[in-house]
């Protein structure tokens, strides 16, 4: 998606070997107009999959996921990373090793919000090694729901996540695909 690639070129900062900082439009400050356009594009790419629900992980997946759900006219659910008094005792959980924080998060979804037989679309901000998506896959599986697609805002093709998802036979769509960081510059896959 050219619009997103242009924005990454303009505002993205490369940290070290393999991390992109995009905190002025996605990961801290959020550009709602851009998020709405990303949501529209995900909805267009997945409309034929007859999605019942969009699932993401807090916090950076929420903005693109909510606009996708708005366009598909379905609810959006986000997995929580912390237990809360407001969460019921009936949960699906999975462990996710965070690439950027280098710690394991326990992600949690209330059983009421993912139901057997539902067609679920996963959305996330980044795809690196695929741990976040795998955690969400476990939850969809445990609920007896069907995973019908994975939408990623920014994929780094040089990490192993995409291969993992392709091997699982999933319909994956990434709006920007980064093939390398070279001297602090972002290179996109064609
Ligand atoms: P994975 O689980 O695929 O290894 O990593 C995906 C998760 O790690 C995303 O949800 C995102 O929060 C974070 N992440 C991975 N790579 C990057 C990156 O280059 N930049 C930022 N800002 N977050 C990343």
TrEMBL record:
<keyword id="KW-0328">Glycosyltransferase</keyword>
<feature type="binding site">
    <location>
        <position position="20"/>
    </location>
    <ligand>
        <name>xanthine</name>
    </ligand>
</feature>
<keyword id="KW-0660">Purine salvage</keyword>
<dbReference type="InterPro" id="IPR050118">
    <property type="entry name" value="Pur/Pyrimidine_PRTase"/>
</dbReference>
<feature type="binding site">
    <location>
        <begin position="128"/>
        <end position="132"/>
    </location>
    <ligand>
        <name>5-phospho-alpha-D-ribose 1-diphosphate</name>
    </ligand>
</feature>
<keyword id="KW-0808">Transferase</keyword>
<feature type="domain" description="Phosphoribosyltransferase">
    <location>
        <begin position="36"/>
        <end position="157"/>
    </location>
</feature>
<comment type="similarity">
    <text>Belongs to the purine/pyrimidine phosphoribosyltransferase family. Xpt subfamily.</text>
</comment>
<feature type="binding site">
    <location>
        <position position="27"/>
    </location>
    <ligand>
        <name>xanthine</name>
    </ligand>
</feature>
<keyword id="KW-0963">Cytoplasm</keyword>
<dbReference type="GO" id="GO:0000310">
    <property type="term" value="F:xanthine phosphoribosyltransferase activity"/>
</dbReference>
<dbReference type="Pfam" id="PF00156">
    <property type="entry name" value="Pribosyltran"/>
</dbReference>
<dbReference type="GO" id="GO:0005737">
    <property type="term" value="C:cytoplasm"/>
</dbReference>
<dbReference type="GO" id="GO:0006166">
    <property type="term" value="P:purine ribonucleoside salvage"/>
</dbReference>
<protein>
    <recommendedName>
        <fullName>Xanthine phosphoribosyltransferase</fullName>
        <ecNumber>2.4.2.22</ecNumber>
    </recommendedName>
</protein>
<dbReference type="GO" id="GO:0032265">
    <property type="term" value="P:XMP salvage"/>
</dbReference>
<comment type="function">
    <text>Converts the preformed base xanthine, a product of nucleic acid breakdown, to xanthosine 5'-monophosphate (XMP), so it can be reused for RNA or DNA synthesis.</text>
</comment>
<dbReference type="InterPro" id="IPR029057">
    <property type="entry name" value="PRTase-like"/>
</dbReference>
<dbReference type="InterPro" id="IPR000836">
    <property type="entry name" value="PRTase_dom"/>
</dbReference>
<feature type="binding site">
    <location>
        <position position="156"/>
    </location>
    <ligand>
        <name>xanthine</name>
    </ligand>
</feature>
<comment type="pathway">
    <text>Purine metabolism; XMP biosynthesis via salvage pathway; XMP from xanthine: step 1/1.</text>
</comment>
<dbReference type="GO" id="GO:0046110">
    <property type="term" value="P:xanthine metabolic process"/>
</dbReference>
<comment type="subunit">
    <text>Homodimer.</text>
</comment>
<dbReference type="InterPro" id="IPR010079">
    <property type="entry name" value="Xanthine_PRibTrfase"/>
</dbReference>
